[in-house]
Design a protein that fits this description.
By secondary structure, this protein is of the alpha/beta class. Helix content is 38%, strand content 14%. The structure holds pyridoxal-5'-phosphate.
């Protein structure tokens, strides 16, 4: 994809960090900054127009998730959705135990850590060498004191797609709630909250060609959660603050657009991703992190013996190829990613990471530029 204002040939391959806002999304958002800037709580016509825009977006996000509109709560992003699910559900449950996995995003792990500090028991399940949670470990850990099991739908670093429907079923045997962070998987993997028995699911706008600063939490009807943000009582009292109308409109449009072409997009991304993997694995000393099967269509993640991932990302950047060494929130960090450690990589392997992440706008040209640039970048860094 050509990036305006950048060097003539560039390839943006960091879509796991964030994505471009789709033109159709921006077009729908723009009027809500200028002409239609009403507050949905106002009773006049401009307020009504804003409220209608929120209703429409809620329907679109619900259709993409497979739930009722009344089960969608808009938040400021994936992080807030994760926080609301964990703090909200656990605080309103009389139970004292939370189960999660070692490769969750820090929005989940840090929230669970906070709960541990306030006296909750938190069990962090290990994963295997490809990043999979073992359902037997879940079954052993869940009991009648478990408030919540939170396991992500797809990992943001290595793309592992967890067996969330099976895990949800195990949680429900003990009447525990099941939450999934689907920030990476939403609209890129086949998730249906009803079919998969999910009680709560977090999504984020900027990973699906919507804007930054908007997300949503699906909360199944009947699930009791306490608000984290209190005030004016917006979002059924679960998320006070005047609604981010342009953001909500953008998330709704992004979800609707993505669902329209999802099947073809997933197929195309998978084929391109597999070709990229085959190509990169020809580089001396390279290996794949994460699974071959059950891997998110947009994710490829590699290690390169004797190369620091951050150096490789910077060398590629000089050639117009934008990738990442781990995930955006830990990029630039000199500490190994907790995901790499959890799958058994040692410190030097963990620090030699390169994540290539695609979107539905990624082209063969992008893959070609990566293919031309990577061997040069690896050579330059190894020198
Ligand atoms: C799996 C996962 N969860 C949560 C988040 C946080 O989402 P947001 O940036 O919308 O707060 C991210 C973002 O990288 C993510 O990849």
């Amino acid at each position: 994809m050509h990036i305006p204002g950048k060097m003539s040939r560039t390839a943006y391959l960091d879509n796991g960090s964030t994505t471009t806002v789709a033109k159709e999304v921006l077009d729908e958002m723009l009027p809500y900054f200028t002409n239609e800037y009403g507050n949905p709580s106002s009773i006049h016509t401009m307020g009504d127009n804003a409220a209608r825009a929120v209703t429409n977006a809620r329907k679109r996000v619900a259709a993409a998730a497979g739930c009722r509109p009344s089960e969608i709560i808009f938040t400021s992003g994936g992080t807030e959705a994760d926080n609301l699910a964990i703090f909200g559900a656990v605080m309103s449950s009389g139970r004292k135990k939370i189960i999660t996995s070692a490769i969750e995003h820090s929005a989940v792990l840090e929230a669970c850590g906070r709960m541990r500090e306030t006296g909750y028991k938190v069990i962090v399940l290990p994963v295997d060498g490809e990043g999979f949670v073992n359902v037997r470990d879940v079954a052993k850990a869940v009991d009648d004191d478990t408030a919540l099991v939170s396991v992500m739908a797809a990992n943001n670093v290595i793309g592992t797609m967890e067996p969330i429907a099976e895990i949800a079923e195990i949680a429900h045997r003990h009447n525990a709630l099941f939450h999934t962070d689907a920030v990476q998987a939403f609209t890129k993997a086949d998730i249906d909250v009803k079919r998969d028995c999910i009680d709560m699911m977090s999504v984020s706008g900027h990973k699906i060609h919507g804007p930054k600063g908007i997300g949503a939490l699906y909360v199944r009807t009947g699930v009791k959660i306490s608000p984290v943000m209190v005030g004016g009582g917006q979002e059924h009292g679960l998320r006070s603050s005047t609604e981010n109308i342009p953001g909500i409109v953008g998330l709704g449009k992004a979800a609707e657009l993505a669902m329209r072409t999802m099947r073809g997009d997933v197929k195309r991304m998978t084929e391109l991703r597999d070709a990229i993997i085959d190509d990169i694995l020809k580089t001396h000393g390279s290996y794949l992190n994460g699974p071959n099967e059950m891997r998110l269509c947009s994710n490829a993640h590699f290690g390169f013996g004797g190369v620091r991932g951050n150096d490789l990302v910077l060398a590629l950047s000089k050639m117009g190829v934008y990738a990442s060494s781990a995930s955006a929130c830990s990029a630039g960090s000199t500490e190994p990613s907790h995901v790499m450690t959890a799958i058994g990589r040692d410190q030097s392997e963990a620090l030699s990471s390169l994540r290539i992440s695609l979107s539905r706008y990624t082209t063969q040209d992008d893959a070609d530029l990566l293919s031309e640039s990577l061997p040069k970048a690896v050579r330059a860094v190894r020198k």
